[in-house]
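#help-structures

NK: newbie question. if I give both the sequence and a SMILES, will the prediction place the ligand too? trying with pyridoxal-5'-phosphate
OV: yes, paste both and it writes out the complex. here, I ran yours:
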Amino acid sequence: MKDATKLTHLGRNGHQGFVNPPTARGSTVLFPNVAALKGANGTRDAYGRYGSATSWALEDALCEIEGGYRTLLAPSGLAAITTSLLALVKPGDHLLVSDSVYGPTRSFCDKVLTRFGIKTTYYDPLCGEAIAALFLKETVAVYAESPGSLSFEMQDLPALARVTHARGALLIADNTWLTPLHSRAFEHGVDISIHAGTKYIGGHSDVMLGVITCNAAAYPKINAMHHDLGLAYSPDDAYLALRGLRSLGVRLQQHASSAAQVVEWLRGRPEVRQVFYPAWPGDIGHALWSRNHGGACGLFAIELQSAPATAVYAMVEGLRHFGMGYSWGGFESLILPIDPPPPRAARPWPASGPVLRLHVGLEDSADLIADLEAGFGRLGRATG
Ligand SMILES: *Cc1c(COP(=O)(O)O)cnc(C)c1O
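OV: that's the protein plus ligand as structure tokens.
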């Protein structure tokens, strides 16, 4: 089956002849006899915390699309990340984490894992095989995110996987930007692929959900930690995410083609110094992106020419179609001033001017461009 067909067919363990699985709610599962009761112990059939027909349909669909062994859901993308990290470490261990990792992931390493004697070194997201020099004998995992949060560096995942596996460690990757449709994580040697289902999988800004897809070797550890932490999530959210998944392919095509038009227009503007978008041919990660993925979305960042913060705020606060908010991946356009710049340890933040992150939604791109053009007018007037 091709991807578009998979998105339509997978996870349809229908009921009563309906096209979609029901929203199955439940905590207690009743068993007819002791043999069945004991037989279910330790399996996902035992108890409501391990999901229901709704979430299993979503798990199975996501797993097959990305080509993993098993998928587990979590109550948020961040819970998927922290569960995966906790599953792999013990006191004294060492992690290599990408310097442009999602901020709360960094915070978990710095504030929580340090309390248990687990050290993190942040690596340059552009290092490729040179990551080998950073391994210690205590290194148990490499945690990548490609493209990186806010600065969008593409990482050479196959190269990272070769080095990581040669050292007997595991490669985790946050593939939220690529989605399970474009990540091809397991072909690239990733052991654990993480997604914020909150973003494009849900796709409508009304669901919080995390996704952990594992290969067969990593699954038992991740599954055990998932059980030990008691993670549970609502079947309604699983239902909405499965519904979002049906249109993931066409939504991403539209987000990416509108984003390409907006980026093209932004490139021609004197206010814009740099664009950070791997799907744009001038981006430093473009070749890697084309070779490994070739699928994009509507999220990117721009650096403006130097301007006072108040002028940038005048620009963003007056936009009609770009809302201001921290998330992305819904149908609506968003803008986020990156102010102050995030911490970086291994590769300097790539901009000296103001940076804006844009999410191009499903609005008409001409309306979005007109909105940004009016915004640049406010920026210019406020800069003086
Ligand atoms: C939003 C996001 C997350 C966290 O997802 P939540 O569902 O908001 O917890 C993780 N990684 C990336 C790259 C994200 O953008």
